[in-house]
């Protein structure tokens, strides 16, 4: 989801300015309809939807003109694939509260990837987390909420802060248990807040200590979603396109 899609029109499809093009993605359980913007007379641009599963869907390019019936201009298949970012997000979501798995993630810290790689990883994993269907009872601290805050343990928040993942940290803060994780010490006696300070992550420390910290700049901040029952409408400000998603 949230990738840019470019549509090339054939000569016979290049029509008057009052024609509006949009794409309809039809999956097994969810359908998306996205508006497009014209780059030039022969090219359109839009944003791919965040789908609910990995599958091949039908995509139709439709043309609409006031007072005329909607026309299907072209049809094609479009594949949603499971990439490394999706795998990583799913693994992290599943191992929330699992001490063995969370201790293993500390191994990643020893390699200390370059800043550019961290930024890329942060963006991709945070976006993947947004598109995961997290269970209603999901919690940053894991399923066992009987644990008291006094028990030293590793949390997902420690993981995100240790690697300097600003956007993932912000996402976790918005989830159940996110704020509670800030006061939990790990076996070394560090909280996510003290870890950020110790590592010199000033922006991250500010994010964790400010009451109403804004979401860090990212591809996701360019969009705003409104949910209503089985429907959601998303506006991507960068391209000024809209997306309607409905359960089929």
TrEMBL record:
Question: What's any one GO cellular component for it?
Answer: actin cytoskeleton
Q: What is this protein called?
A: AKP13 protein
Give GO terms for biological process: adrenergic receptor signaling pathway; positive regulation of canonical NF-kappaB signal transduction; regulation of Rho protein signal transduction
Q: Which gene encodes it?
A: Akap13_1
Specify the domain of life of the species encoding this protein: Eukaryota
Report the GO molecular function annotations. Answer: MAP-kinase scaffold activity
Q: Matching InterPro entries, A to Z?
A: Ankyrin_rpt-contain_sf, Rho_GEF
List the top taxonomic levels of the source.
Answer: Eukaryota, Metazoa, Chordata, Craniata, Vertebrata
Coiled-coil annotation reads none
